[in-house]
Amino acid sequence: MSKKLPIGILGATGVVGQRFIQMLEHHPWFEVAWLAASDRSEGKTYSEAARWRLKSAVPANVAAMKVSPATPEGAPKIIFAALDAAIAAELEPRFADAGCAVISNSSALRMQSDVPLVIPEVNAGHIKLIDIQPWHKKSGGYVVTNPNCSAIGLVLALAPLQQRFGLEAVMAVTMQAVSGAGYPGVASLDILGNVIPYIRNEEEKMEEETLKLLGQLNGKQIIPAAFAMSAQCNRVAVEDGHTESISVRLKAKAKPEEIIAAWNNYRSEPQELKLPSAPERPVVYLEANDRPQPRFDVDMGAGMTTTVGRLRPCGVLDWKFTVLSHNTIRGAAGAAVLNAELLQAKGYLGGGHAK
Amino acid sequence: MSKKLPIGILGATGVVGQRFIQMLEHHPWFEVAWLAASDRSEGKTYSEAARWRLKSAVPANVAAMKVSPATPEGAPKIIFAALDAAIAAELEPRFADAGCAVISNSSALRMQSDVPLVIPEVNAGHIKLIDIQPWHKKSGGYVVTNPNCSAIGLVLALAPLQQRFGLEAVMAVTMQAVSGAGYPGVASLDILGNVIPYIRNEEEKMEEETLKLLGQLNGKQIIPAAFAMSAQCNRVAVEDGHTESISVRLKAKAKPEEIIAAWNNYRSEPQELKLPSAPERPVVYLEANDRPQPRFDVDMGAGMTTTVGRLRPCGVLDWKFTVLSHNTIRGAAGAAVLNAELLQAKGYLGGGHAK
Amino acid sequence: MSKKLPIGILGATGVVGQRFIQMLEHHPWFEVAWLAASDRSEGKTYSEAARWRLKSAVPANVAAMKVSPATPEGAPKIIFAALDAAIAAELEPRFADAGCAVISNSSALRMQSDVPLVIPEVNAGHIKLIDIQPWHKKSGGYVVTNPNCSAIGLVLALAPLQQRFGLEAVMAVTMQAVSGAGYPGVASLDILGNVIPYIRNEEEKMEEETLKLLGQLNGKQIIPAAFAMSAQCNRVAVEDGHTESISVRLKAKAKPEEIIAAWNNYRSEPQELKLPSAPERPVVYLEANDRPQPRFDVDMGAGMTTTVGRLRPCGVLDWKFTVLSHNTIRGAAGAAVLNAELLQAKGYLGGGHAK
Amino acid sequence: MSKKLPIGILGATGVVGQRFIQMLEHHPWFEVAWLAASDRSEGKTYSEAARWRLKSAVPANVAAMKVSPATPEGAPKIIFAALDAAIAAELEPRFADAGCAVISNSSALRMQSDVPLVIPEVNAGHIKLIDIQPWHKKSGGYVVTNPNCSAIGLVLALAPLQQRFGLEAVMAVTMQAVSGAGYPGVASLDILGNVIPYIRNEEEKMEEETLKLLGQLNGKQIIPAAFAMSAQCNRVAVEDGHTESISVRLKAKAKPEEIIAAWNNYRSEPQELKLPSAPERPVVYLEANDRPQPRFDVDMGAGMTTTVGRLRPCGVLDWKFTVLSHNTIRGAAGAAVLNAELLQAKGYLGGGHAK
Asked: What is the mean pLDDT of residues D324-345?
């Protein structure tokens, strides 16, 4: 009998739900045990319900699994959620209230003051907010979230700079992949040979989530980071990988080699804990003058490494550079899986019977 | 017999050379009379020598025209140049020295102190630098240049703001079309499903040309504009049209409706002089929240109008917005043609025998 | 007061509906007077209801027009229909029954034995089927259809060969543009860097419609053409323009120059009648060895000319060649407009009060 | 000390050369020991000379290797060649003459009567032609070739049909990836949003190579297969993977389930010999009605499996279906590596000291 912890997935048929299934296929601690999706999928097998959009095949056991109704009854105690925000706002509290650990990729609750928004390398300590959640007190359930796919690469590139030099201002312009919009998502007639300079709510999320992620836990609340922040979000004809042109002003003087060293040497709790999905190197600086590029670099560290390149002085702020991260792995499913691994390592997933 | 002024084209077979030919096909003042390209094209007809990459057909008279050697002997007195920088550095002075008006799209001489770098709507007065060029004194020849394709859209969007509110800082991140790299230019293996965060020398050109264009003529020299400027240039899988995410800090307070009015009401010398290639409106603000987009907006004003959209406050500087302009029309061939029209209107093309 | 005939459009907000509006903006005989779309558009203005996906702007009068319910009451007597097949099957008979001339781009009724399926250059005589339609006898209304976007380019290329040499077998493999699937249509995640070797029902339509179009009217019925026919349909990452690799076996011996002459000299009733949307040349053979290509040739003849190229012997049948036509102009909206012009010229649009 | 056989690569910096290096990185029998490329690469390290276009990193030992002159002196006795045809025509005989086993992906010598053109699953026996090569008699050297990237997928799909039912006619229309043209290869301005219905010499190669591959060795010569054959080759905006729409006429009656079984059960010498690069299943039939697709299926069997789908009756010949294979793995580098493995297993690589 398997000693792995059973996992349920809310929103299992979508682009991120598929990535959950793919990433959990050979996971040492977790195994997919329950799947839920929208009403029209209910009762079908997963392979009937999902339009699988990944290169690897659907794992056979998952393909044959029946899609359950999206209610806590009968669901496992650990739930990965990849829901649209409006649905998440309703369902995630319901599952938490029923005693589930809801590890969410949805935006609905990210900015709620008692909900941790976590990148394990950056702000693992924020998970202590769980303790003040009313659900937790009542049933042991809780919600932990990971950030928007555009924020996570940026924050992984900023965290070493904040730690080492301090941040005063950050400007980000993104060129985001179509998989970030889910499936069917972006119509081909909208994006072939085109750039769309707008993604609904994305700039707001990127700005406020960045400040919360890089903020400080002060007793029962997060004091957001205080630097100035501005984001402009564009969609481009790329399948996977968000590329970002970044400029920053630092508090302390920095030499370029110090900045690059800060990135390349950045290690953190997931690396120390050897969490299964933690990349050996969370941030890698590429020396070639035309990298990172999504076509060549997006899969580094099995899609969990953020790559950075083109560090050079900025005529307005101090430094500019390019950041790339995989939006459905590091920016979504992988982010949630790593959060779950952190929670398990910290004893939040109930009894340590895994591992 | 035609009363039109005969025009020669240096670099006639390239992407920009082709646009020259297309734009001059029905021009009221100018007509193509002479074509030169690299040695291997010499002696061929144009249709044999050029790999035509535009939708409209090669004009019949041009198709049959022989490609001449790239020397001033036998060339007309008005030369449009679309040469690689290294070749331009050698050939443009030679033609100017021989008495030709060289209206250049090349980067070679743009930043030379006695060479005007001109967008007729923005800094028409800079053409007076012609008078101090040694070539002009000797033979009547001269060189006038237009800016890089990434700078021109930006400067058209900035000029109304500079005029009305003053500029303190400008940050630009570009998403540039592949036609900007000429033909064959960007390999498909490099750009399909990809973003390339690097274009050689492009950021430097964009920064320094912007400041020269928005600078002041002070006697015999240009005093560059004094605002802080930073550019990051990316290549995307778009055929035509450079999209740019811009942030600015203004000197004076501005309301959004004032900024939009400054763009929409911007008219300038080319419009007053009714130059044939001048767009009725050099800058147009689009109200839709997801525009401008290259697929839909790049041809506005026959490719000579710069479109702007998404004005909103910036958390680091004051305002951010998106700019789009057609890189081979407004950003190259059309820019040079409009420069030629300005020169003709100002009496610099020798006698006003056109029109 | 306008002397133009008022036109109603069913399915006005879709990709083909938009092309109708674009093509009718300056039409000499017709003008858009009424628009209908799905329930959720009702009562909105057209510019609110439609997500306009064309480069040219929405005509101002149409932008402000209210979207009407899709019922014959209050609708003009001439209706252009661009509906999904299931809806067309219900609505088109209802409008015909109410006395409307329904000029349809939908597939629902194309193969019905008393409904003309018409390309004016090819089988204009088939419109006589109108006379036997029960609707026509009852109310004067009727339905006339144009073929699927994949069939029309093929049939225009085949008709001159059938006429001159006879056809024994035709094999077609298509590479079809995404606009053929409507909007939102093909998801970008499905087509970026991809080929989809399947379009639902498309091969069946292409095969049977081709035979009906090239068939003979025999009293009250169409005897389909008798040659063998096979189609394979693929979707590719092209915005507009269906490219087709064709092989044919002819009844009579043919020299290549005779085949090319058959195409280039093909003129037909729409050309003789000088119908406003008829291209001067319905079929044009391109001599270059790598043409036609959608990027360069799709707009020939304002999108109404079918281009052909690469004629060469086939090792299995007799000849092979490449065909290209614009799928939303020649293959949809333009096809219907040309049908309407033919009907008007033949007195089927009620009294010739136009022009 | 390594027991692996040292390999030299001619044309090491190109797209196929890079695939050789990638595929040999962990090869159990072979190791890269020598690299040659064009004159301008000579003396540089490989990482300086090559513009690496693959996702995986350059193997460290290869990155540091010096690029040698392309002469047999100092080269290993086993040479993988990925040269342009014109250069191959000169160099490959020179290496064979000097005693090298030249395993070539180039087209230069494929159709020469004493040169084996081999797909190990299909016609392994043809390698006996080596014995009659003059080079072999003189020095022990020889040339063995693999087919064009468009032919190999087709032939793998045809071989089981030929074996089981016999072939009378084959029509192929290809939609080929840009990587098939090498690097820089296809210009992005030529292929974005486009289809190019022409690839130089490709149709001729595809037709004649298919017949040689499926031919019979009769003493000292190959009797080509006798079925009728026609190919039409198109380029599409896909990175890797040639998709082909195929129609065939069979000699014997076949039921669809028999055809599918013929594909799925096809096993051959490389599978029996367990050659390291042989896919477990050379041909796999996909049941989904819209597969194979390059985006999802091209990497099956590590890029060595040919996938087939959409079997259905053809109105002109008997059956039609879609074939997909990876053009730079199965269609180029992998084909040559598998040939080398076959040669080694058959004792043609000198002494069996590998393994």
From this structure: 98
In this structure, is residue B218 part of a structural domain? Answer: yes
Q: Looking at the partner chain, which of C179, C187, C237 has a beta carbon nearest the beta carbon of A184?
A: C187
Percent of chain A predicted with pLDDT > 90: 95
SS (H, E, C) C298-311: CCHHHHCCEEEEEE
Residues B183 and B252 in one domain: yes
Mean pLDDT in residue range C62-78: 96
Tokens 């009542």 locate to: A138
CB contact under 8 A, B296 and C193: no
Q: Judge if B122 and B13 occupy the same domain.
A: yes
Distances (CA, A) of A333 to A33, A86, A304, A330, D296: 17, 19, 10, 7, 20
What mean pLDDT, rounded, does chain B reach?
A: 96
Which of A296, A300, A307, A324 to probe the D interface (max D CBs under 10 A)?
A: A296
ipTM: 0.95
Q: What is the CATH number of the domain that holds B55?
A: 3.40.50.720
Does residue C119 fall inside a structural domain?
yes
pTM score > 0.90 for this model?
yes
Chain C / chain D CB contacts < 8 angstroms:
129
A184 to chain C, any CB pair closer than 8 A? The answer is yes
* C193 contact B CB<8A: yes
Q: C56 to chain B, minimum CA–CA distance in Å?
A: 8
| Residue C277, in any domain of the structure | yes
pLDDT at A32 over 50: yes
Instruction: Give the span between the Cα atoms of D113 and B302, in whole angstroms.
Output: 59
Whether D153 contacts D309, CB under 8 Å: no
Per-residue pLDDT at A354 exceeds 50: no
Domain span at C214: 149-326
Q: Does D1 touch chain A (CB under 8 A)?
A: no
Locate C180 and state its tokens.
Answer: 């053929």
With 50 as the cut, is the pLDDT of residue A352 above it? Answer: no
**Is the residue at A351 inside a domain?**
no
DSSP 8-state secondary structure symbol assigned to residue D175: E
Mind listing the pLDDT tens digit for each residue in A275-330? 999 999 999 999 999 999 999 999 999 999 999 999 999 999 999 999 999 999 99
Given a contact cutoff of 8 angstroms between Cβ atoms, the answer to whether B307 and B324 are in contact is: yes
